[in-house]
Fold this sequence. Notes:
The chain has one domain: NADH Oxidase (3-Layer(aba) Sandwich), CATH 3.40.109. The protein has nine helices and four strands; from the N terminus they run ααβααβαααβαβα. It has helices spanning 13-18, 34-44, 64-73, 79-84, 101-110, 116-131, 135-159, 172-178, 209-212, and strands spanning 56-61, 87-94, 163-167, 186-195. The structure holds flavin mononucleotide.
Amino acid sequence: MDATKKNLVNNDFSDIMLNRHSYRKFKKDVKISNEEISEMLEEAISAPSACNLQSWHFVVCNTPEAKEKAHSVMMPFNYPQVDSASTVIFILGDTQSHYKYRDVWNKAAENGQITVEERDKVFKTFLPLYEHADRSFLEKDATLDGSMVAMQLLLLARAHGYEANPMSGYFFDKVASTFDLDSDRFIPVTAIAIGKPDEEYTKSVRYSVKEVTDFI
Ligand SMILES: Cc1cc2nc3c(=O)[nH]c(=O)nc-3n(C[C@H](O)[C@H](O)[C@H](O)COP(=O)(O)O)c2cc1C
């Protein structure tokens, strides 16, 4: 994908990143097509991931019925966003992404992007890390991958002319099962409400770089 060919509504990086704020009330009559959401996701999955495992999974709640399901797993303080957003996208981490890991590298070898020897080296180096990993390692990796792609999606929402709010205030144990996903395999990372804002943003305060940084 050549990003420069993208027809984004906003392609101004500093505006997209530095003027991003969480919005929590959206115009209810705005629809975002599944095609545009797919485009945003295609752009978002350019995110990096540990060993290129791409341990993410998306559940797009873009119909009244699906949004009702999203509402049912949320903590009440997130109802305004969920109920007014054009769409709510849940990002889950896939703790079993290594089961299909070979597919990606087989494809790269078939495409001639890497040699068969290089592919086998990847299998030997990385797969054992995951095949012998404990649950917390797999959850951590899946959460990191999911967070990377979530951040991209937050920025892409702006690039497409929308605003967004990340939300992890949901009943964690209800999320996967509500969306008919295997809750052993998929763990919620965050959900993103996207739409056209119907409020002024409140600029949030940050600690200074000095407070949060050690130059060693
Ligand atoms: C992991 C995570 C979980 C969050 N969960 C919620 C949430 O459940 N509800 C909400 O209104 N905002 C949520 N937020 C948004 C934060 O409150 C917000 O990013 C922070 O206050 C900074 O404000 P800003 O996004 O406008 O810069 C979450 C943000 C992150 C990164």
